[in-house]
Each structure stands twice: as structure tokens, then as C-alpha cells.
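COMPLEX REQUEST
Ligand: zinc ion
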Amino acid sequence: MEKKGQVARENTIRQYLIALLEEHVLSSRDLSTYLKIPEKEVLDHFEHIKISIRKNHQSIKIIPSRCEKCGFVFKKRERFSKPSKCPVCHSSFVSEPLFSIVDDKSHP
Ligand SMILES: [Zn+2]
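STATUS: Structure written out below.
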């Protein structure tokens, strides 16, 4: 029973995450604040959401992190987490990646 409740709760959180990201562009930290769950859990949910929204022809759009010091943009990054350091100038002033859910019309 315990386990079943946990799964239901996670599904609810995922539905809410999807609803938020369909309307807003948010960082994982914003989402962790809204949902009152750790940021790491938000990132775990992203991995599941990424797959589950595919059948609705949607995908998670990532607005990449950017180095605040030299302006380097982490375009190639596939992971959802924030990079810790800039590979160019080694600054740790790196902005958070932002996320939204978009209709994936280019891949029907
Ligand atoms: Zn930099």
C-alpha cells in the first residue's frame, strides 16, 4: 500500500510539472520551490517526463546555461542539471538552464 501511494504521488507531481512547463519557462530550482521537492527529484522526474510526453508529440526544450563571465553557452549539453564550471574561463558563475515543454512538430 505504501508503495502504491508513493507511485500515485509521483504521477501527480509529474502531471503538475508538465502543466507548469507547458505554460512557463522555469529552472529546476523554480520547480523545486513550487513543488516542495528537492531539485534532484525534479531532475529525476524530467527523465520520466521526457519519455512520457513523447507520445503526445511534445518534448522538453532546454534553454542552455550560460557563463556569466565570458558568455559561453552550454549548447551541446544534454543533461538537465546545471554545469558547475565554464570550460572556457573556469568561472563558476553559470546561469541555470531553463525548461519548457513544446509541441514537437518537427518529429511527428
Ligand atoms: Zn566562461
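REMARKS: Residues 2-23 form the longest helix (22 residues). Residues 43 and 80 are 6 Å apart (CA to CA).
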